[in-house]
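Backbone Fold Data
Goal — fold tokens
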Amino acid sequence: MNITLNLKKGLDLHIAGAATGSPATAETVKPRLVALTPDDFPGLTLKPLVKEGDTVAQGTAVLQDKHHPEVCITSPVAGTVKAVERGERRKLERIVIEPDGSNNAVTFDVKNIDNEDSARKFLQSSGLWSMIRQRPYNIVANPESTPRDIFVNALDTAPLAPDMDAILASQAKELAAGAALLAKLTRGTIYIGRRQGSKIAKIADIAGATMVDIKGPHPAGNAGIIASNIKPVNKGETIWTLDGITLARIGHLALNGTLDTDCIVAVTGSEVKEPTYIKTITGCDIESIVEGRLIKTTHHERIISGNVLTGFAVKNDGFLRFPYTQVTVIPEGDDVVEFMGWASLSPKKMSTSRSFPGHFLLKKLFRPDARLLGGRRAMIMSGQYDSVVPMDIMTEYLIKAILSKNIENMEALGIYEVAPEDFALAEYVCTSKMPLQTIVAQGLEYLRKELE
């Protein structure tokens, strides 16, 4: 049985620089370097299994969780470990690998994966387990947990996001194999969200899964939003979430015994000459992606690994971060001198407020920069957050409970079903300029430490 979700709350940002062309004909970009960043895998305490100068094949374990040694992070390429970078207090920042161009790859045994235990070990040893998140806490799925249900978002509604329909359209076999493998890990239901009324042939029905046809503005494509509107997470329950690309990777591994570390990346934003799709490797260096693609300007630029709402600001010497699907380049804005500053009535200013002309220009594509445009102040209880968060929670009161570290109120207000990405739009519309995603992330970490 299929489910239809027609969500009304949310907001689509009209930003210039959407990728054009087809992912199927994307230009191949070979990375100079690739990197694995431990911060991309929250909930794991990782230690390196390699040192500088070691040779690794694709699929070789290079990081291991200290508390669950069976959970590994594997190399996306064959090559040589160029650096094991550490920061303050010897925190592990990243492992950098230089590809050697060979096809050396670890082959994983796909035989006898006939029960939950064998399926778990298969995913944990391959590194794909680390791409599955659990709620509560929005961390890498606990190897000791069994999910009530699994939610897959096979669509991306974020600003300038890649067309996941087009990316996954030719991978029906892999998606079905991935769903069959995940079915061994839960006694509940696998829900797969897809875009309703797609311009191309939408993702086909998958045996053993419940398909969810979704219509609505961002954040309709977030896995947590799908879960909240179908079967919310209550205290004592655990669900897993992942995107459709990860599901296809799991299916490819189950069918072939080798990792698929290729990724289609949308290079987007107003500072890109010709926004387009490229094909590269997960963890690719940013310089290889943006080289020769940016408009020559005199102002500063911000390169974001991800979208403008939830992505990571990176430099040219940075790397593509998980979930490896998008790079956005916009003006930094730190060198802009504007009459009246944040209060400027210029029609070029993108705003959700009726006080600014840009609010009424519904068809205009804006070129926003990275400025905060306003000062931080005490929270204003205006109902703004609830207008863009399509979840049955009292958003403002939840934020106040997190700030006060009131665990009882956090639980009563729905902390177990949220993740920072669900508050990205609320952070954008917030007149108090509060860092809501950071607040939610810290609240989830505090709750986990107190209760586990």
Remarks:
- The mean pLDDT is 93.
- Residues 436-451 form the longest helix (16 residues).
